[in-house]
Amino acid sequence: MFRLSACTLATLWISAAFISPRVVAQHAADDVAPLKANHALEVPANYREWVFLSAGLGMSYGPNAAPADAPQPFTNVYVNPSSYRAFMQTGRWPDRTQFVLEIRGSATEGSINRGGKYQTAVRAVEMNVKDSRLPGGWGFYNFGSGAGPSEPLPQSASCYSCHATNTAVEHTFVQFYPSLMEVARRLGTVRSDYREKVD
Ligand code: HEC
After folding, report:
1. Which residue has the CA at smallest separation from atom 43 of ligand 1?
2. Residue of 126, 129, 166, 169 with the most ligand 1 atoms within 8 Å of its CB, for mutation
3. Cα of 159 to ligand 1 centre, how many Å?
4. pLDDT tens column, 98-124
5. Sequence-separated (6 or more) residues with CB below 8 Å from residue 11
6. Tell me, what's the pLDDT at 60?
7. ∠ at Cα 56 (198, 131), nearest 5°?
8. If you measure from the C-alpha of residue 132 to the centroid of ligand 1, how many angstroms do you get, rounded to a whole number?
9. Nearest ligand 1 atom, CA 75
């Protein structure tokens, strides 16, 4: 009869310990907002407890970018925690990852502050969602200043094409989230067509 020696058991146990984080990483995220009928979403109530990736200040990249002398908004980016942990291990986003882009006003004069800029009220919230149930696997949502529910924007919306062509990892702007970009470079998941500088 085949008997498992203590040594074999130990090997199995060690292998399982090494393999399991990767298996976990491939599981669909379950700490996200549920997709409703017609793939509608509400802004996740607790997104400010998610992982903060980075903040842009007055970034201007689209045709609708504000003029240079307009007040510069902050753009705060959050991702659900289990997908963040998976990315740290694999450099890729698991299915059902959700990103929140929180757009806030900025101010200089307030309280004791006289220089630089700090954040003020939320102006709008947008989301980018990786979900195999969506056409093309990705969905973009614009909630404006409300909380939804909102259906994904149509595939013709500029969100889809800009995020499909200019992003460093999958359809996400990891090049602007410095600690994640380091991980993607180390694990070799930066897109081969990614360009450091686009004229
Ligand atoms: C011309 C290019 C462009 C277009 C169009 C665009 N985005 Fe983005 N998006 C960016 C850039 C650059 C960032 C990087 C972060 C920042 O702005 O702070 C970003 C970041 C995001 C993020 C954070 C997660 C990620 O994917 O990196 C979300 C969510 C997002 N955009 C949603 C939208 C939605 C919704 C639309 C359409 C209404 C849209 N975007 C249109 C360029 C674009």
Report:
1. 162
2. 126
3. 7
4. 999 999 999 999 999 999 999 999 999
5. none
6. 87
7. 80
8. 20
9. 18
* pLDDT digit string, tens, across residues 68-101: 788 899 999 999 999 999 999 999 999 999 999 9
Angstrom distances, CA of residue 60 to CA of 63, 150, 156, 190:
9, 25, 21, 23
Cβ-contact 30, 81 below 8 angstroms: no
Q: What is the largest distance, in Å, between two alpha-carbon atoms of the chain?
A: 80
Residues of the chain with pLDDT under 70: 1-26, 62-66
In 3D, which of 155, 122, 123 has the Cα closest to residue 139?
155
Residues in the chain: 199
Residue minimizing CA distance to atom 14 of ligand 1: 173
